[in-house]
TrEMBL record:
Keyword Isomerase: no
Keywords: Hydrolase, Metal-binding
Alphabetical list of InterPro entries matching this protein: Ureohydrolase, Ureohydrolase_dom_sf
Alphabetical list of Pfam families matching this protein: Arginase
Lineage top rank: taxon: Bacteria
Family (UniProt): Belongs to the arginase family.
PROSITE patterns in UniProt: ARGINASE_2 (PS51409)
Protein name as it appears in the record: Formimidoylglutamase
Amino acid sequence: MSDYLNLVDFLEPVNTALISDDLGYKEGQVGKVISVFDEGFPDLDAAQIVLVGCGEQRGAGLRGTSTAPDAIRKAFYSLYYWHNDVQIADIGNVKTGSSLADSYAALKIVLRELMGIGKRVVVLGGSHDLTLAQYYAFAADEKAIEAVGVDAVVDIHIDSPQRADNFLMELLTAEPNFMTHYNHLAFQSYFVHPRMLETMDKLRFDCFRVGTVKEHLEEMEPVIRNCHLLSFDIAAFAHAFAPATRLSPNGLNGEEACTLMQYAGMSPHLQCLGIYGFVPEQDPSGLTAMQVAHMLWYLLDGCSRGAREVGLDERDHFNEFHTMFAEVDTVFLQSKRTGRWWMQLPDERFIACSHRDYQQAANNDIPERWLRAQERP
C-alpha cells in the first residue's frame, strides 16, 4: 500500500455495492476476480491491466463529472472472466480538478506512475481530449511513441472553443514532440475537410477511412501492433451499435470494434488505452455501456493471445521467407504461434506487416506499408 500512497491522493474509490446493485457477483464473473479500490487500495504487483476512470468532460463543453466510468464498470463486472493468465485491477476514478488543466495533470500523474511500474493502463473517460493526458504521461519521460486514434472525425477544428474538437493539433505539433508516428482509423470522409487529410499526409501520418477499416480489418492489426498509445472515441461507432453516439448512422459495428481491441491487447508495445465520448444519459438501454464492456473483454483476450508470442530473435518459432521486389532483397517472418507477420527494412529493422504485404512483395510489387515506413524519418 505504501508504494501507492501518492496515487491515492488523486483517486476516488469504486462503490462496488452500488455498481452491483447490492447483489455482489457470481463465481466466475469479472467483478468476483478483479482487484478493486473500494475499502482499501489493491495490491497491483500481480496486475497486468489497470483500469482507471476519469469523468472529466468539460473539454466537450459538458458540465459536471461523467458517470461513464461507473456505467462501464457495471456492465464489465457482470461479464464472465475467461483469461486466468491476465490479472486485472481497478483503482477507481481520478478526482475532477477545479480546472480542466488540473484534471489533465492528475490523470497524467496517475498514468505516468502506473506505466512506470510496467502496468498497461485503460482509461475510462470522459471526453476525448483526455488523450492529451495520455500523451503527456509519455512526454514527461521523453519517450518517443507511436499512437493510434479511432474516431469518425479528425479533431483538428482550430476554430472550435472545445478542447475535444481540437486537441489533436496540440498532440501532433507540441514542441518538443515525441510522437514519431500517428495513425487515424475509421474516419468518415464527409465529416473531414480534404485539406485536413492533405496536412496529415504531409506530416507522414496515416489515415484510414471507415470503409477501408471495415473491408480490410486484418490490415489494421499491424497498424495497432506498433502503437504505445491508443485512443478510441465511441463516435467511431454507427449509432445502431452504440446508441449513446449520435454523430452518424454509419461507422464501426460491435464486432469490428472488439476485434480492434483484441489487436490492441496483442500489441507488445501498448501501454495506455483510452475509451472516450460515452455519455450515459444518452444510453437509457445500457447497450453502449455493454458494448464498451465487450471491448474490454476482447482487450483481455488479446493480452492473453499476445503473451504467447516470442521475440523475433527466436527464429525457430517463425516461418522465414526471403523475397525480392523492385531489386530489394528482404525477409518476411510469420509467427508459428499467432500467425502475425513482420517484414525487414533496408536498415535491417523489422516492422509489423500483414500477409497481404508478403503477397504483394512475392508478386514483385512494393508494399505500401514498406514505402510509408521508408518515407518517415
